[in-house]
Amino acid sequence: MTSELTTALPADPAELPTAQLPAVPGAGPRPAELDAREVSAWFGTHKVLDRVSLTMPAGRVTALIGPSGCGKSTFLRTLNRMHEMVPGAALAGQVLFDGEDVYAPQRRITEARRDIGMVFQKPNPFPAMSIYDNVLAGLKLTGTRAPRSTKDALVEECLTRAGLWTEVRDRLRSPGGALSGGQQQRLCIARSLAVRPRVLLMDEPCSALDPTSTRRVEETIQSLADQVTIVIVTHNMQQAARVSDRCAFFLAEAGRPGGIVEHGPTDAMFHSPQDSRTEDYVNGRFG
Ligand SMILES: Nc1ncnc2c1ncn2[C@@H]1O[C@H](COP(=O)(O)OP(=O)(O)OP(=O)(O)O)[C@@H](O)[C@H]1O
Hints:
Elements: E1 3-5, E2 34-43, E3 46-56, E4 61-65, H1 72-79, E5 89-97, E6 100-101, H2 109-115, E7 116-119, H3 131-140, H4 148-161, H5 165-168, H6 181-193, E8 199-203, H7 211-224, E9 229-233, H8 237-243, E10 246-251, E11 259-265, H9 266-271, H10 276-282
Parallel strand pairs: 4-9, 4-10, 7-8, 8-9
Antiparallel strand pairs: 1-5, 2-3, 2-5, 5-6, 10-11
Helix pairs in contact: 3-6, 4-6, 6-7
The structure holds adenosine-5'-triphosphate.
């Protein structure tokens, strides 16, 4: 069945992510496969994506690459139903999460947002909130109650998985805004992990960071890869080559909506692309 939204659904402030604290700290859910089928997207009458199909395998890192404006971020935002929050936005096609339609009428939008987390370009911790409370912020929104020891274990686990624990373990009560940009981004990753997502979407997560912080975030991405499916938008070809297992090359030619020219294993995309446009792009000849 094809889900089709012809008008955007209003964002419902009551629909905040729901979450449960894990019964066993460290026992997270397994990564999920995302499968986009013939996804088209519009802003008003402007069609920006045309029938994009892409399977993003469970427990792998998929990089979305391509020149500015070809629809990578829009595609990313269709995957966890953020696209529909833009007034006038519309969408056609299907997004399957382990075979289940993310846009099925019976599926709550909150489920999609919980199962499919998102990390943005600019680190966005709550600046005045403590590091500890930032990690738990997604749970607090739902009023989830848990004993202190369970919370402590979850905070340590998520900060460890995000590669930040050793740097902040002695100052968990300091404000999130006091961390460096790279540390703030890893704090945002820890916050995303606390609600147990099975997929993590990352929209240029390192573009506001210096090279050292970028390297730390890349290490975090690599260490998370077998625990949570990752889909990352990046303009940095070296980064795509370093962190991803698979790549999809997006292009919007001559005023046409964006689409995928080619996708496949990262190594093949960089060393033996099938399409000359992919070869030109990955070798920096345009874009
Ligand atoms: N909120 C919006 N309202 C209207 N048009 C938008 C909106 N967001 C994006 N667009 C348009 O959709 C098209 C795709 O934009 P998108 O941001 O998805 O591309 P991108 O490949 O991620 O670009 P970049 O690499 O520069 O971030 C562009 O033409 C852009 O102008």
